[in-house]
Amino acid sequence: PRRWSRWVGWPGVSSESLKTEGKEHIREQLAPEDCVPVFLSQRQMDQYYLGFCNKTIWPLFHYFPGRTAFEQDFWKSYKQVNHLFCDELMKVVKPGDCVWVHDFQLMLLPQLLRDRMPELAIGYFLHIPWPSYELFRLLPWREEILHGLLGSDLIGFHTHDYVRHFLSSIARICGIEHSVGELTVHNRIVKVDAFPLGIDYDKYANAASDPEVQVEIRNIRNTVGNRKAILSIDRLDYTKGIVERLEAFEWFLSTYPQYKGSVTLIIVAVPSRTRIEDYQQIRKKLEQLVSRINGDHGAIGYVPVWYLYRSMPFKRLTALYSAADVCLVTPLRDGMNLIAKEFVATKADAQGVLVLSEMTGAASELGEALVVNSSDKEAVGRAIKHALEMPELEQVERNRIMQERLRRYNVNRWSKDFMHAMDEVKAKQRRMASHKLSQDSAESLCGEYAAA
């Protein structure tokens, strides 16, 4: 059956910048879209979002403990905002509803909802990696985080590796063992499983037929000329391995000088979390490296690296995917990475090679790509050479296999599978729930027990 949904989330502005009428205006504008705003103060945005979410959870869960800040004020704000979301949800949730909580910003919310409405169906999905126990145990508030998540009926991750790490943390910290991915928490079953996030496959596969996209593709190819185009698109984030990717390209040009003048690397770095110092530093380092490579390996009429620090509208993005000969997707750690899937989807009956980091969740689904260790710049450099020299028929065949897989498990299938699993968990909980006996049944049971 078709499900009606309502989104509850932060509208992106601080509450101080809005008067009462401003908040009401936002609520009125969002209501027809079935969206409910949760307003955060500037302090909450700084301490909760920029603080605990992006300076504590994000680096730790992506295996960067050296960048992780353990600040008590961040944690207090994180708890406060999770309670705020719970209060707002209680205004709109009704018995029989299902609440699907998304991502690391709201890991306490499931149990807060459970405390307020015990019979509520609650699902949770994490869009980033779940780290190994040895890393997760560094978090001072590890028990509270796990307790919050265990308020869910179903907990989803991108890959089975993340499921395994989570279950290990539950066993070692909470002392709860699982049976085939099922936990028993206060006589309630909690299911933990993998649901690899898909994309809107048809949207990307059909993009190249748009006349505006075709014009963009021709413009890109005319500008690149006879050179091979290697594409790199990412948010500017230290987890994405952009600097390491550039160093690998530099090694490639130094090791295989015959490619100078015939290959161009197009780097699109999308601005992200610009107020955080780590992100400011990586931008500076990236731009210095681009200048060095262009200075060392460029020539009059040849710029090895085209660097764009901006976001990309959909049509230009898909034109870049379509025009590129190679796509470098080499994060140091990534929960899934949909860029890899989007690139493959645009390559219907066309050549193009995906070079993919084994540290992404997508690597478990896209095995026909050239899978590399993103920390090994020489391996990435060799993969670039392999991609540039790969026969066209082999490129098309590799992409065809991956496309069939992506078409079959798209974003709609992902959401349907999750909701179906939620229904199954709730049904199993109902079957295993204790029921009050009628007086006749109670007397019969007591009699049978006495006679046994």
Strand order across the largest sheet:
10-9-8-11-12-13
Helix content: 40-55%
Beta-strand content estimate:
5-15%
Helix and strand sequence = EHEHHEHEHHEHEEHHEHEHEHEHEEHHHH
> Number of DSSP strands?
13
Uncertain segments are none
Q: Describe the main β-sheet briefly.
A: 6 strands, parallel
Structural shape? globular
SS-derived structural category: alpha/beta
Report the mean per-residue pLDDT as an integer. 95
Distance between the termini: 48 Å
> What's the Cα radius of gyration?
25 Å
User: Count of helices?
Assistant: 17
Walk me through what this model shows.
This protein has 452 residues and is of the alpha/beta class. Helix content is 49%, strand content 14%. It has 17 helices and 13 strands. The strands form three sheets. A six-stranded parallel β-sheet has the order 10-9-8-11-12-13, sandwiched between helices. A five-stranded mixed β-sheet has the order 3-4-5-7-6, with helices on both faces. A two-stranded parallel sheet has the order 1-2. Helix 13 (338-345) links the parallel strand 11 and strand 12 (353-357). Helix 9 crosses helix 12 and helix 10 (242-255) crosses helix 14. The longest helix has 22 residues, at 411-432. The model has no long low-confidence stretch (mean pLDDT 95).
